[in-house]
Amino acid sequence: MSKVLSTLRYSAEHEWVDGSTPTKVGITQVAADALGDVVYVDLPEAGTTITAGDTCGEVESTKSVSDLYAPVTGTVLELNQEAIDNPALLNEDPYGNGWLFTVEVSEEGPLLSAADYASANGGDVE
């Protein structure tokens, strides 16, 4: 079963935020497992303003292409070049080296606790 970290908060669309300032954003292990082997990520450019609940990129796997939704509103500050160059990191370490970008948050979207996310989507809270 997929891991859900108790230290993070989650969107209903399977993104996570770590709550730091600026906050890191990534996709959950539940999403990575459902996607299969991730082969490409399309992320918002640094300096772009994203709005919670709106699409802000794509994650492409050998199975499908899925939209990436902004879990917060704010300005994108940094992209994880390592994940862009090696998208398999999203499968291998979605909560660590597989983070996607950082955001200077001006407003949070509706976020779930780890327990609520796991209850709705499966997964073991750790």
Topology:
Blueprint: E1 3-4, E2 9-10, E3 15-17, E4 23-27, H1 29-35, E5 38-42, E6 49-50, E7 55-61, E8 65-69, E9 72-79, H2 81-85, H3 89-92, E10 101-108, H4 114-121, E11 124-125
Parallel strand pairs: 1-11
Antiparallel strand pairs: 2-3, 3-4, 4-10, 5-7, 6-9, 7-8, 9-10
Sheet with the most strands? 6 strands, antiparallel
Give the helices and strands as they follow along the chain. Answer: EEEEHEEEEEHHEHE
Mean pLDDT: 96
Measured by DSSP, the beta-strand proportion falls in 35-45%
Query: What class would the helix/strand composition place it in?
Result: alpha+beta
Q: How many runs of DSSP E, i.e. beta strands?
A: 11
Outline the low-pLDDT stretches: none
Question: Total number of helical segments?
Answer: 4
Taking strands numbered 1, 2, ... along the chain, how are they ordered across the largest sheet?
Answer: 2-3-4-10-9-6
Rg from C-alpha positions? 13 Å
**N-to-C terminal Cα separation, in Å?**
12 Å
Helix content: 10-25%
Molecular structure report:
By secondary structure, the chain is an alpha+beta fold. The chain contains 4 helices and 11 strands; from the N terminus they run E-E-E-E-H-E-E-E-E-E-H-H-E-H-E. The strands form 3 sheets. A 6-stranded antiparallel β-sheet has the order 2-3-4-10-9-6. A hairpin with a 4-residue loop joins strand 2 and strand 3. The radius of gyration is 13 Å and the shape is globular. The model has no long low-confidence stretch (mean pLDDT 96).
Short description:
This protein has 126 residues and is an alpha+beta fold. 19% of the residues lie in helices and 39% in strands. 42% of the residues are buried.
